[in-house]
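We emphasize that the prediction below concerns an isolated chain of 354 residues; any contacts that depend on oligomerization or on bound cofactors are therefore not represented. The input was used exactly as deposited, without trimming of termini.
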Amino acid sequence: MNSLSVIDEYHQYLRRKRFVFIGMLVLLPFAFFYSITVGPVGISKTEIIRILLGYEAPENYVRIIYHFRLPQAFAALLAGAGLAVSGAAMQAVLRNPLCSPFTLGISGAAAFGAALVIFLNGNTAGLTEHAASNVFRLAGSVTVGAFLSSLLAIGLIMLLSGYRSIRQETIILIGVALGAFYGAGIMLLQYYATERQLTTMIYWTFGDTQRATWLSVGIMSLFVLVSMIYFISQSWNYNTLALGEENAQALGVPIRRMRLGTMFFASLSTAVLVTSLGIIGFVGLIIPHWVRLWVGSDNRFVLPCSLVSGALLLLVADSTARSITPGCLMPVSILTAFLGAPLFLLMLLNRREG
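Result of the prediction step, given as a token string:
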């Protein structure tokens, strides 16, 4: 009877977590559709449904939906999902709750690379709102510069992560040091920049889905999908690692290879997201903590729930940012920062084990 009771409790435990995941998944299409309905041009929900179903509609409405709002909604979904699941995987493999793509300095590296290209290029004409896709046509584009700078930071993090003797807590400190270094570099460039260059640098650092295009959505989709598959395939290994490195090694977990693989995919997907949309902070840090309050620390559920929760959060935040001030589309990074910092402090003060 006792063994049956334990098995029943375990199945009930699994059902609760699956129920939470399915509930989040059900909310996702509603959040996505709501995101498409929000914008400076008022389009009724009925008209939007007709456009999505392929019925005849005013040409300007069709262009707004297909060329602006749909790419923005997909970009918010992908960025939220990618940053959240990358943060959850990093926290699992480094066993550090403060680990995230933002705290490891990858975002700062991308911002420095973008600022450097803007400064060296001198001519920043054309790098205005909705023109970010045009920089791909330039050899020294802002996006390419930001991505290459991110890759350098990733290479350094990967190199240091591979050392057997280095403590995992030290990687966080390395990220803090990288963030400070790149922050100083950005301030130096801004000090000597012209007024036009300074405006462009500041605009780029705003994490904003308005600059999304179908090309950038396709690139983000590829990297987020590959990273997601890798992370979820390693969920059992992450759970084993939580028991301690010695126990994980005794059970045959390839710790060094898993750590390098996780850092590589998390860093690379983050670099792609940041260089496509700008810096969006706190998503990769807060969402995994919030998810663990609901489903515990089992990474078989933490990773997929973080994926869906991150997408939900950024879709809702982006829709809210676009509707706060009519006629003025606020970058979503401002809202996530305002909400993220106090929420994270609140979770730290009320933290309980999952």
